[in-house]
Specification:
There is one protein chain. With about 350 residues, the protein is an alpha/beta fold. It is built from 14 helices and 14 strands. The strands form five sheets. A five-stranded mixed beta sheet has the order 10-9-11-8-12, with helices on both faces. Strands 4-1-5 form a three-stranded parallel beta sheet. α9 crosses α13. It is globular, with a radius of gyration of 22 Å.
Length: about 350
């Protein structure tokens, strides 16, 4: 009986400590009044300041959505530029609250690095960018090529695996800073550059002559890019996760930044729950019931952030592809928000 009581006390202590730890980041964020977000800093379309110093990009808007959910103000966010090598260490060390930096979810990163990835905000795949003058049409023609690649990335591992599997040789040129790697490629130090196809589109868009370069049709990997938080901080993970999912759900329900006020009058139960007309979701997350309304009103639904940052009317000219809603041939899908 004494042993049973002791075990019960230990279980209660662990349970209580778990609850306290679960809200650690969330409480810290609310106390300081802003969300500290690790971003790329030099990737057009995903995370980069414009000519006026205003941060732009799909990852940047994801970060703003989190701030809108927590504070009701999408501007209560501080962006911290991080290289691929720095990004996970900065998150582990608590230098940022969340990482929104075109990071691929992998088993190793989830387990060995002590991170948790949330809903994917961009499904990607690794490709190759080459000068058209080389007249290369497929990746298997790159045997013996000099390849520009960022260190500390899945890209570096994938390209080595690809060349090894296809019994091809390569000479890697490894440079940590995006801007310096781009310069090396455009200066002709590499025959090709390899990275996520979306990143290659961004690189090509800032080339001296974008039409001189092409992305090969071969995709050699799966790259689910998602925000990441520290492992074990469950309440904060929920907030970040559902901030992304709210934008996907809003697109499916036809709610946009322009019509969201009108949608408050909707009799659709799903819309009423999402916008906080029917309460419950906000309380469950520890947020104001208008958390999703604030995201949509101030940042937009997923289609809006996609199109203004990387869509067909931007220099990247990316199609929705896998990032279309499930009902439109893609794999973007939100569970019921209730």
């Amino acid at each position: 009986m004494k042993l049973f009581k002791l075990c019960l006390v230990v279980a209660i202590v662990f349970a209580m400590s778990g609850v306290a730890f679960a809200g650690q980041t969330f409480d810290s964020v609310k106390a300081k009044g802003f969300v500290q977000v690790g971003v790329n800093g030099d990737l057009f379309g995903f995370g980069k300041p414009d000519e006026k110093g205003v941060w732009r990009g799909l990852d940047v808007d994801t970060a703003r959505a989190i701030a809108a959910a927590v504070f009701g103000d999408s501007n209560k966010v501080k962006f911290v530029p991080l290289t691929a090598v720095q990004r996970f260490t900065a998150l582990q060390a608590g230098e940022v609250d969340v990482l929104c930096r075109n990071a691929t979810q992998t088993l190793g990163r989830d387990t060995e690095l002590g991170l948790d990835f949330v809903q994917v905000n961009y499904y990607d795949g690794q490709g190759f960018l080459v000068p058209k003058k080389l007249k290369i049409k497929r990746a298997k023609e790159l045997d013996g090529a000099t390849v520009c690649v960022l260190p500390g990335t899945t890209t570096e591992l994938n390209v080595a695996d690809y060349f090894r599997t296809n019994k091809m040789k390569m000479k890697p040129v490894v440079i940590e800073q995006n801007a310096e790697l781009n310069k090396a490629f455009f200066a002709g130090r590499c025959d090709c550059m390899t990275s996520d196809a979306s990143q290659l589109a961004g690189v090509r868009s800032v080339a001296p002559n974008p039409d001189d370069y092409m992305i090969l049709p071969d995709i050699i990997s799966k790259e689910p890019l998602a925000p990441a938080v520290r492992h074990g901080d469950n309440q904060w993970k929920d907030v970040v996760n559902f901030s992304v999912l709210a934008m996907i759900e809003a697109e499916e329900l036809g709610i946009t930044s322009k019509n969201v006020d009108e949608m408050l009058k909707s009799a659709n139960p799903s819309i009423m729950r999402l916008l906080g007309v029917t309460p419950g979701n906000g309380k469950a997350l520890g947020l104001n019931e208008k958390w999703a309304y604030n995201i949509i009103k101030q940042v937009g639904n997923y289609a809006e952030i996609f199109e203004r940052n990387v869509g067909k009317n931007t220099p990247l000219k990316l199609e929705r592809g896998l990032n279309a809603l499930w009902k439109d041939g893609g794999i973007m899908y939100s569970p019921p928000l209730k």
